[in-house]
C-alpha cells in the first residue's frame, strides 16, 4: 500500500486537532471522513474547515475550484464502524484517555482495509500500549501534528515497539503528500517537541516567579533573540496552563526532577487563570487578544 490520493482517510474526533488534520487531508486530495459522536462538534468542524478554505481564497492562497473540491472530498459521520469501513488510514484524535483510544482503534481495526494503517495523534500516551489492542500492532503508529495544523509544517512520527518499516515509509509518504516535514521518534515521554517546550515554558515561569524580568520581556527575549514565533509564556497561555501542568507532572514522574512544575503554574491553575480560554493567564485577554501591559511582572517568591 502507498499513500495515494484514492486512499480513504478517517479522522476520529472533531475537536481542534481533528478538524485541522481533516482539513489537511481533504485539501491535499484525499477523500476524508471526520467521525464524532457529537453532531454539533461535527457541524462546527465542517464550518471551521469551510472558513479556513474561504480565508485561503480571499487571501489568494487557494483557488475557488480547489476550495470547492476540498469540501466535496470531506464528509462527516457519527458512526465509526460505517465511516472506517474499508479505510486505508484511520487517525484518532480523541481525548487523552487510554481506555477511550483503545476502544476507538479496536472498533476501527475490525472494519478497515486489511493492510490499512492506524495512527494516533497522542503526544503523551504510549503508542505501544494503544497498539496492543489491535490485531496488527505493526501497522500502528503515532502521527503527532501541531496546532494550527494548516500552518504548522512538522509531524512527529512515533514508533511503537511493533511498528514495522513499511508502516513508517507509508506514513512518511502521507506527511509528504500533506506538505509536512516528518521526523521519526522512538516512543518516549514527551517525544521531542513536548519535552523541549515543557522545559522551556517551565523555566520561563521560574524566571517570572523570581522577578528576573516581566512576562513581556521574557517573551520578547525568545522572539527577538532566538527568532521564536511566540514567547514561552504566550505559548503557555495559548496551550492552557492546566494542560501544561498536566504534561509537566507526567514528565516529572517519568523523567525526573528537572521537570518539577514551577509553583507559579500551580498557583495560576488553582486560581483558574488558564490562559486564552479563560480570558486570563500570564496575560489578560479581550476579544481573543492580549491586553498590552497586562502581563505578570514578578516576583512571586
Automatic annotation (TrEMBL):
Instruction: Write down what this protein is called.
Output: 3-hydroxyacyl-CoA dehydrogenase
What are the 3-hydroxyacyl-CoA dehydrogenase C-terminal domain coordinates in residue numbering?
192-285
Q: Name one Pfam family in it.
A: 3HCDH_N
The GO annotation for biological process reads: fatty acid metabolic process
Gene3D superfamilies recorded: N-(1-d-carboxylethyl)-l-norvaline Dehydrogenase, domain 2 (1.10.1040.10), NAD(P)-binding Rossmann-like Domain (3.40.50.720)
InterPro entries attached to this UniProt entry: 3-OHacyl-CoA_DH, 3-OHacyl-CoA_DH_NAD-bd, 3HC_DH_C, 6-PGluconate_DH-like_C_sf, 6PGD_dom2, NAD(P)-bd_dom_sf
Q: Which GO terms describe its molecular function?
A: NAD+ binding; oxidoreductase activity, acting on the CH-OH group of donors, NAD or NADP as acceptor
Q: Site annotation (Important for catalytic activity): which residues?
A: 144
Q: Which residues form the signal peptide?
A: 1-24
Q: Print the organism lineage.
A: Bacteria, Pseudomonadati, Pseudomonadota, Gammaproteobacteria, Pseudomonadales
Q: Which residues bind NAD(+)?
A: 13-18, 36, 96, 101, 123, 147, 277
Which parts of the sequence belong to the 3-hydroxyacyl-CoA dehydrogenase NAD binding domain?
8-187
Species assigned in the record:
Halopseudomonas laoshanensis
Amino acid at each position: 500500500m502507498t499513500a495515494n490520493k484514492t486512499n480513504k482517510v478517517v479522522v476520529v474526533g472533531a475537536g481542534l486537532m481533528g478538524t485541522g488534520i481533516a482539513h489537511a487531508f481533504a485539501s491535499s486530495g484525499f477523500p476524508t471522513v471526520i467521525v464524532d459522536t457529537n453532531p454539533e462538534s461535527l457541524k462546527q468542524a465542517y464550518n471551521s474547515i469551510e472558513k479556513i478554505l474561504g480565508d485561503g481564497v480571499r487571501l489568494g492562497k487557494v483557488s475557488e475550484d480547489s476550495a470547492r473540491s476540498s469540501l466535496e472530498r470531506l464528509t462527516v459521520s457519527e458512526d465509526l464502524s460505517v465511516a472506517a469501513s474499508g479505510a486505508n488510514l484511520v487517525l484518532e484524535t480523541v481525548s487523552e484517555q487510554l481506555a477511550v483510544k483503545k476502544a476507538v482503534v479496536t472498533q476501527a481495526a475490525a472494519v478497515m482495509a486489511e493492510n490499512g494503517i492506524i495512527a494516533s495523534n497522542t503526544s503523551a500516551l504510549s503508542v505501544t500500549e494503544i497498539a496492543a489492542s489491535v490485531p496488527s500492532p505493526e501497522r500502528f503508529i503515532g502521527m503527532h501534528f501541531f496546532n494550527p495544523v494548516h500552518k504548522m509544517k512538522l509531524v512527529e512520527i512515533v514508533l511503537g515497539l511493533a511498528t514495522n518499516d513499511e508502516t513508517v515509509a507509508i506514513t512518511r509518504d502521507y506527511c509528504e503528500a500533506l506538505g509536512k516535514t516528518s521526523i521519526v521518534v522512538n516512543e518516549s515521554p514527551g517525544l521531542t517537541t513536548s519535552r523541549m517546550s515543557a522545559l522551556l515554558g517551565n523555566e520561563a515561569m521560574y524566571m517570572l516567579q523570581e522577578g528576573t524580568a516581566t512576562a513581556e520581556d521574557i517573551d520578547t527575549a525568545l522572539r527577538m533573540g532566538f527568532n521564536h514565533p511566540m514567547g514561552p509564556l504566550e505559548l503557555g497561555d495559548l496551550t492552557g496552563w492546566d494542560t501544561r501542568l498536566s504534561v509537566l507532572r507526567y514528565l516529572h514522574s517519568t523523567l525526573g526532577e528537572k521537570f518539577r512544575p514551577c509553583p507559579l503554574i500551580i498557583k495560576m491553575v488553582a486560581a483558574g487563570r488558564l490562559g486564552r480560554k479563560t480570558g486570563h493567564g500570564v496575560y489578560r485577554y479581550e476579544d481573543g487578544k492580549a491586553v498590552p501591559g497586562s502581563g505578570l511582572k514578578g516576583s512571586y517568591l
